[in-house]
User: What shape does this take?
Amino acid sequence: EDQVTQSPEALRLQEGESSSLNCSYTVSGLRGLFWYRQDPGKGPEFLFTLYSAGEEKEKERLKATLTKKESFLHITAPKPEDSATYLCAVQATGGFKTIFGAGTRLFVKA
Amino acid sequence: DGGITQSPKYLFRKEGQNVTLSCEQNLNHDAMYWYRQDPGQGLRLIYYSQIVNDFQKGDIAEGYSVSREKKESFPLTVTSAQKNPTAFYLCASSPRDISYEQYFGPGTRLTVT
Assistant: This one.
């Protein structure tokens, strides 16, 4: 069964303290892996799509990487405005669904 | 500005009443989706539509119904048959039915008492 697991469930950082969020996935074949940011009470905002192992994408303080079994979202020198829930999702080949993980809640303290 | 709108933002209903959630997009996307989000869980797919006048059930379609009469609109009806309807509902669209990222609306929080 296709599955996405994100860890940790919650992460508390001091401003400027870099860290990584993990997304482990199990699919028969990967069509694409997606990262979204979700603020409380709002809809998810698309961040990145990764298609193949070794691929990396960056946006401001965020960098997403992909291996055959997991993806990491690296946050460099985070600021309080980076506080949000980060969602990982995958699409498998031969299917129509996007499978979402439960998310990692990130808190960045000034 | 292009985007997805959902209305209302908050909705309160009594148990036993049907309620319809609105979703409109002006992105010219072919595919549209409805998800349900509960605390501590990933988004779960209720229904999706790849083209006008066609839609398919997702993982948790029981107690819900949809229509797709126009490309821009994909309303969701939560019926009295849905056992636990209180949740945050998200509508999304994508340019293709598969292989592309989805763009989400702001969500509707439904409370049924």
